[in-house]
TrEMBL record:
Protein name: beta-galactosidase
Recorded catalytic activity of this chain's protein: Hydrolysis of terminal non-reducing beta-D-galactose residues in beta-D-galactosides
Family according to the record: Belongs to the glycosyl hydrolase 42 family.
Gene3D superfamilies found in the cross-reference section: 3.40.50.880, Glycosidases (3.20.20.80)
Glycoside hydrolase family 42 N-terminal domain sequence ranges: 10-377
Organism the protein comes from: Blautia pseudococcoides
Length: 670
């Protein structure tokens, strides 16, 4: 697309009365140039088996075509109609909790033959009907797709076949690799394979989760291929990935391998929901955007984000605008709200849209009017923002699963998940105004980066570790944390010195770990008097050539290193044996980034003023200065001469930039 997309999800089917003409007029006033339709309304589109009704779809397409508003059509497969479950009860997913009961969305077995038959039929009927409409610019396949815990008989039969193929038919090889002899779980015939829902074996359990993630990849690739049979060359296929949910988007999604699924998409898309009001930091916006941009190393679409959303998310004045441009600062080419109007019935009645239940103009809508018209005016300067980040974080679904089975356990009050460690690192970089990419363990382009970070990379194949070692030896800077390189891709713990293969690279080894009680840190980065504590978990590190950067302060654990630094080949490797405060982490990162010659984006001393940048489609450097606070803030204009895009004013090096509360400035180099 040659324009920024600013849009909403729109459901004519949900309206209590006909107001399509009024809605279109309000959208035009707000500069909205995109709506997404159809993904939630299978039962309206196909009210009975084989009976199709395109009334609402045609109404919306006609109206949007006349208004010059683009449309993304969603395949409606994530919420099945009641008649399907009544005809074929086996479409319901069987999970650890048993067979599901009809009602909610995302309750079906995505491998079920009846479900797939009806899905293919409705997709083909829908595509035949809409593919030639001029306003339709692309298609979203399904919606926030996951495997929904599906573990019924057919899924388990397929899993057994998958394991047979993985181990080339040798059940004893599986026993050895997965440690199945524990508690008499060993199998000596594939026909004896038990119900995997009851397994206590972490290797088998994690492998089943990997298999389930593969089902999602297969399902979405199948849908993308179906849509691809009909779509025009000027239309795209996308999907709205979501993230681990902690009452808002938080971390790497456990049930989908986004790197694998994104291969079938033209454009990677995502749904980002985040705290607002006094809790608005921009971290979730940046994290979700950076992860999605990294999937295809290209611009991405935010296909859902909140306008008003939950009661606690109604934005303060200025925040909706700050949030919208924060998405663009990450490289998004589209910002779309879920949804246009608030719904008057059912489950999400109080997840409010841009308009409230009275459909009247409100403060949030008024701000959307400002945003949409600013995007229209400045879009050519903000479109297709490209980044060349030199730091990368390696993230892994396998490590996430492994640390779900074997959590990073501290005292009874303390437990950390994989995503806690990822966000510990990411949030520190974010607050320091250092932008980064994400890479998967399969990445072959590590040499594109100066710094590679491994947060709790617990399960990792040897070939990945060899690439990481080579990256460091050839001059890269490596930062690894506790619980890295501990087990292989099958969650079988490596039986040599930890961390496996990287022990020489980091210049350390350890074979004991515990949780820290009254254990502090001292060394190059902090003194004993500062009382910087080791948190949650600690490894008892012995150095083998590495320099001790921080050691434990404790009567017994004081003999061990907590943080080390080692020269390896042309590169450097730093290892963190425990968690500690974000303040100390940033101090360590600042030192390391300086050595790597990775510089924070200019002009800010750090959070709450966040600076994000890149080059626009004209090749000009652009910096977003984002104030995530309720107070005025100051920043400094970077070297050179710049145009502030909102005001058109010229800004020069060293000039003070005044940022109003919950506001932003955008500089483009002259």
């Amino acid at each position: 697309m040659d324009e920024l997309l600013y849009g909403v999800a729109y459901y004519d089917e949900y309206m209590p009365y006909d107001r399509l003409e009024k809605d279109v007029a309000m959208m035009k006033k707000a500069g909205i140039n995109l709506v997404r339709i159809a993904e939630s309304t299978w039962s309206t589109l196909e009210p009975q088996d084989g009976v199709f009704d395109f009334y609402h779809i045609d109404r919306v397409l006609d109206a949007m075509e006349e208004a010059g508003i683009h449309v993304i059509v969603g395949t409606p497969t994530y919420a099945i109609p009641a008649w399907m479950e009544k005809k074929h009860p086996d479409v319901m997913a069987v999970t650890k909790q048993g067979r599901g009961i009809y009602g909610a969305r995302q309750i079906m077995d995505i491998t079920n033959r009846h479900y797939l038959f009806y899905s293919e039929r409705v997709i083909r009927k829908l595509m035949e009907h809409v593919k030639d409409r001029a306003c339709v610019i692309g298609y979203q396949i399904d919606n926030e797709t996951k495997y929904y815990g599906t573990a019924g008989e057919r899924v388990q039969e397929a899993f057994t076949a998958y394991l047979k193929d993985k181990f080339r038919g040798d059940v004893e090889a599986m026993n050895r690799e997965f440690g199945m002899n524990y508690w008499s779980n060993a199998l000596h015939s594939w026909e004896d394979f038990p119900d995997v829902r009851g397994t206590i074996n972490g290797s088998l359990g994690c492998e089943f989760e990997k298999f389930q993630r593969g089902l999602v990849t297969e399902f979405l690739s199948w849908q993308a291929a179906l849509v691809g049979e009909y779509k025009r060359e000027d239309q795209f296929v996308t999907q709205n990935f979501d993230f681990e949910w902690r009452n808002h988007s938080f971390g790497v999604q456990p049930e989908v391998n986004h790197f694998h699924v994104s291969k079938c998409l033209d454009v990677a898309g995502c749904d980002i929901y985040h705290p607002t009001q006094s809790k608005l930091t921009g971290k979730e916006i940046a994290f979700g955007g950076d992860l999605t941009r990294s999937l295809k190393q290209d611009n991405y679409y935010v296909l859902e984000t909140e306008a008003q959303g939950f009661t606690q998310w109604v934005p303060y004045d200025g925040q909706l605008r700050l949030q919208a441009f924060s998405h663009l600062a990450g490289g998004a080419d589209c910002v779309e709200y879920w949804h246009w109007h608030s719904i008057h019935n059912s489950f999400e009645t109080y997840w409010r849209g841009l308009l409230s239940h009275d459909f009247a103009e409100n403060k949030t809508y008024g701000e959307a009017v400002v945003i949409g018209n600013e995007m229209k005016r400045l879009g050519s300067h903000l479109l297709h923002l490209k980044k060349e980040n030199k730091a990368a974080i390696m993230v892994s679904n396998e490590a996430l699963s492994g640390l779900k089975w074997f959590p990073i356990q501290g005292s009874l009050e303390q437990k950390k998940s994989y995503n806690d460690v990822v966000r510990w690192i990411y949030d520190a970089l974010y607050e320091m105004n250092v932008e980064c990419d994400f890479v998967s363990p399969e990445a072959e382009n590590l040499e594109d980066y100066k710094m590679l970070i491994l947060p709790a990379l617990y399960c990792v194949p040897e070939e990945t570790l060899v690439r990481i070692r080579r990256f460091t030896e050839n001059g890269g800077c490596l930062l690894g944390t506790f619980k890295t390189a501990y087990a292989n891709e099958n969650v079988k713990v490596y039986h040599d010195s930890q961390p496996h293969i990287l022990s020489e690279c980091f210049g350390i080894l350890y074979n004991q770990f515990t949780y820290p009680e009254d254990t502090y840190l001292e060394g190059r980065l902090c003194s004993r008097e500062e009382k910087e504590g080791a948190e949650v978990f600690m490894e008892c590190i012995q150095t083998k050539g590495a320099e001790t950067v921080l050691r434990y302060v404790h009567d017994n654990w004081g003999q061990y290193a907590a943080v080390t630094e080692n020269t390896f080949g042309k590169g450097k490797a730093v290892y963190l044996g425990c968690m500690f405060s974000p303040k100390l982490l940033k101090k360590l990162l600042e030192e390391l980034l300086k050595d790597c010659q990775i510089h924070p984006n200019p002009g800010s001393c750090g959070f709450p003023v966040i600076v994000r940048g890149g080059r626009n489609q004209m090749g000009k450097q652009v910096y977003y200065f984002l104030n995530y606070s309720g107070e005025k803030q100051e920043a400094a204009c970077p070297e050179g001469t710049w145009t502030e895009l909102f005001s058109g004013e010229t800004k020069r090096a060293g000039e003070t930039l005044l940022l109003q509360k919950w506001n932003l400035l955008i500089l483009e180099e002259q």
